[in-house]
Design goal:
Length: about 350
């Protein structure tokens, strides 16, 4: 029983995406679905004979939505269209691990072509349910991955404040400046290719050629920040998770850095990413709203370090992580049933 998984985000060299895909592979295998073919993120599937050949052998298509389907983006449309295409070929199709924000009625209409639809947060689910499709909430699969690693029982003493970047390059600079003010540690959730061009591509990913090349001072600051992140990066996802788990506090603008912090019990504060996904995550996890403050400064960081988690946050987080594991495992059991019906 071959399963085709579309939007394999491991090509992005991102520890959160690696964690999600590790969970997908493990959960499929534990439900008897061990023959899996992956279609990489960013690779067009339309008019590609390899894609059609993969579908011809498939009993199930699983589309990993992640943070792709928002604001009517073409990349999000392509994922939904792939589901429609597979369904037209008579193959059961599921959309999982999906964030959703500000998409139009044509996007919503395509949700009705899926046999199973799962949002990774309740706010996304509310918007997706406007389609009339039945939408379940299954928290991001990186939570399942960390919770099911024996090395993830992080009870040791913590030390220091860690800072990641943000997909918004201007917010990235703000976080890097704040890190220096607070004498924090720099962590990179992304890493580069191991070939000689990896470093240059890593730097290039943090700038806008059209806009930043006309502003030399801004360009220099961005390149310095990206180089610093590159120096701190690791290719080992478990090592990155351990770095997060060792902190007293993580300050971040990265959604998956936030999920990994929650999964390891690491107190966190964050500024917004390119959508409201971090605020939605914090809401569902039952942690206090101020942790997703729009403006972070040294005083906020110092206060957050001193406070740690409140008792209610600890209880809420424990319940959230437990329910995330249960919901993930139930969903993949249902996916197995779709493949065998």
């Amino acid at each position: 029983m071959t399963v085709v998984v579309i939007n394999d985000t491991r090509v992005d060299r991102h520890h959160g995406c690696n964690s999600v895909m590790t969970a997908v592979v493990s959960l499929l295998a534990s439900n008897g679905l061990k023959s899996v073919r992956f279609w990489p993120a960013h690779l067009e599937w339309q008019d590609d004979a390899r894609f059609d050949a993969a579908l011809a052998a498939a009993r199930l298509v699983v589309i990993n939505g992640e943070g792709t389907i928002h604001h009517n983006r073409l990349a999000g449309r392509r994922l939904l269209e792939a589901g429609t295409y597979a369904k037209a070929a008579g193959i059961p199709v599921a959309l999982i691990n999906t964030g959703w924000e500000d998409n139009g009625p044509d996007f919503l209409a395509m949700l009705n072509h899926f046999d199973l639809v799962a949002a990774r947060d309740s706010r996304s689910a509310e918007q997706m349910a406007l389609s009339g499709a039945r939408v379940r909430v299954v928290p991001d699969l990186s939570l399942w991955h960390v919770n099911n690693q024996t090395s993830a029982k992080y009870l040791h003493p913590r030390a220091g404040i860690g800072f990641t970047d943000n997909v918004n390059r201007f917010k990235m600079l703000e976080l890097m400046r704040l890190r220096r003010t607070c004498q924090g540690k720099s962590l990179s959730i992304c890493y580069s290719k191991k070939n000689p061009s990896g470093w240059a591509q890593f730097l290039r990913d943090g700038i806008s050629v059209r806009e930043d090349l006309t502003q030399p001072a801004l360009l220099a600051a961005l390149l310095r920040a990206r180089h610093e992140l590159w120096q701190r990066s690791t290719h080992d996802t478990n090592a990155f998770i351990d770095q997060v788990a060792n902190l007293e506090l993580l300050v971040s603008g990265r959604f998956h850095a936030c999920t990994l912090a929650l999964a390891t019990g690491t107190p966190i504060i964050a500024n917004s990413s390119n959508t409201g996904k971090i605020a939605a995550l914090f809401h569902d996890a039952g942690i206090e709203e101020w942790r997703g403050a729009l403006h972070l400064d040294a005083e906020v960081v110092s206060e957050a370090r001193a406070r740690g988690w409140s008792a209610s946050e600890r209880d809420n987080l424990r319940a959230y992580l437990s329910s995330a594991t249960q919901a993930s495992e139930a969903m993949f059991s249902d996916l197995s049933n779709l493949a065998t019906r």
